[in-house]
Specification:
Shape: globular
CATH superfamily: PPM-type phosphatase domain
CATH topology: Phosphatase 2c, domain 1
CATH architecture: 4-Layer Sandwich
Order of helices and strands: EEEHHEEEEHHEEHHHE
Oligomer: single chain
Radius of gyration: 17 Å
Helix content: 25-40%
Length: about 250
């Protein structure tokens, strides 16, 4: 939790939703929807791995219980330390089961602080921003196909159907050394943000996200996105959190 002593310029509200989907037997996604403290997290337990639901829930619970601090830098340091600790625990837990076992989870998180949005991620769970009716992806997937795109080996259209499309290069619990990306941007009144797992993004194009996020309040947008994903087969667990930024009254 972060305590902001400065006068609030902006306010925020949010809604989150998660579903097992149409194929999976268990929901390995976890989320934290906490507008009161300005912290939102989506974690996606690595599909097909042992105890993926445990891994994602551990990531979310650990972040929810971070010590209160008034200093933003200290808070961000605490987040990184927290994820490093969870990473170490999951690797040790996997080692107790089988040297070939991985217990892991992606993570994407957003912090609202004064007029700033600070976000962090590892893996392919994403953060989007809708501003002036235009959608932008703020996070960059830590995935094999994203590396190929960056290297000029393939274009984004080819990546959609690539057989390694679901291979991620970073996750909590996947490697002894974990690297978390952080970024910060200024928020504006009427901005809308969305955190989601890849169970949502694999069934929709960004143009569809843009259209649907331009409609309704945060709950209506979330439910519409979930409904369409389920109608399209929802081959994975699906999680989305939509956050609306407004003027503080």
């Amino acid at each position: 939790m972060i305590v902001n002593q400065a006068p609030k310029i902006l306010s925020w509200s949010s809604f989150g939703i998660t579903d097992t989907g149409k194929i999976r037997k268990h929901n390995e996604d976890s989320m934290l929807n906490n507008p009161e403290t300005g912290l939102w997290v989506v974690a996606d337990g690595m599909g097909g791995h042992v105890a993926g639901d445990v891994a994602s829930q551990m990531v979310v619970n650990a972040l929810a219980n971070i010590s209160t601090t008034n200093a933003l830098k200290d808070y961000l340091d605490n987040i990184e330390d927290c994820l490093i600790d969870v990473n170490k625990f999951l690797i040790e837990k996997a080692g107790q089961l089988d040297n070939k076992t991985t217990i892991g989870s992606t993570v994407v998180g957003m912090i609202a602080y004064e007029k700033f949005c600070i976000f962090f991620w590892a893996g392919d769970s994403r953060l989007y921003r809708l501003r002036d009716s235009t959608l932008s992806q703020l996070s960059i997937d830590h995935s094999q196909v994203e590396l190929y795109i960056a290297q000029g080996i393939m274009n984004r259209a080819e990546a959609v159907t690539h057989p390694q499309g679901n291979v991620i290069t970073r996750a909590i619990g996947a490697n002894k050394n974990i690297y978390i990306d952080f970024d910060i941007q200024e928020m504006r009144i009427k901005d809308r943000y969305m955190l989601c797992s890849d169970g949502l993004t694999k069934h929709m194009k960004d143009t569809e996200f843009e259209s649907m996020l331009n409609e309704g309040n945060s709950e209506e947008a979330c439910r519409s996105l979930m409904q369409l994903t389920l109608e399209r087969g929802a081959t994975d667990n699906v999680t989305a959190i939509v956050i609306d930024i407004d003027r503080n009254e």
